[in-house]
Amino acid sequence: MSQIAQLSEAEIEERFHVKGTLPIAFMLTGFARERDSFSVQFGSGQAMFLTTLLSVEPHSGVLIFDCSGSEETNRQFLASERNVFVGRPGGIHVQFVTGPAREIRYEGGKAFSVGLPKRLLRLQRREYFRIETPRVRPLQFFGRLPGAGLLNLPAHDISVAGIGLTAPAQPEGLEVGMVLENCRFLLPEDEHDLFFKASVRHITTRESRAGTHQWRIGLQFADLPGNAENRIQRYIARLERERHELI
User: What domains sit in the chain, N to C, each tagged with a CATH number?
Assistant: First the structure.
């Protein structure tokens, strides 16, 4: 079974993004019918509020949702050009991005409306949720290459199934499908390193706005110790909690 933590961006796009006005409207209508809750992140991720989807108007291409309880938050939100909705209806991770909102009247009260998203990310229950790791003092991964070379790179994301690494250049000798022995990293607040094997699932490159290139390496865990998944899950939960507290 493939895990989303080891998929390339192209594979994620193909397998998990819902596209088209009618399919997206149909899915969002179901969430609105159930009054599912979503968080809305805006201001480059520096602000957030919780909302409930209220209605979808497919013909006009509009999604309607609750305002925040804070007038100041509402004012700041109306100035936002890019808004990220994240929810877990039915335990399934759903995420989509919209443009700016406007304030409207809906069923006698204030509400927001935005244009329907162009695409929607929906992760199946069997897939593993991954989260970005801190850029300041990142997790440091250590592994042994088959030719006895040492791989030491910072992580950029993690799930209970694998870890994503960032490199300024493609590590010499590293190939997709390769198994790395004697891998380890230390989770913050843990006393002992996690030791495991890992297989290389993908190696991709990205170009930054400044024109520089970074390499992304996706590894799938193997032979994790018995309590490792719980330790990783606690770390992911702590990261989510800390980020919500900062907003």
Answer: 4-122 (2.30.110.10), 131-246 (2.40.10.220)
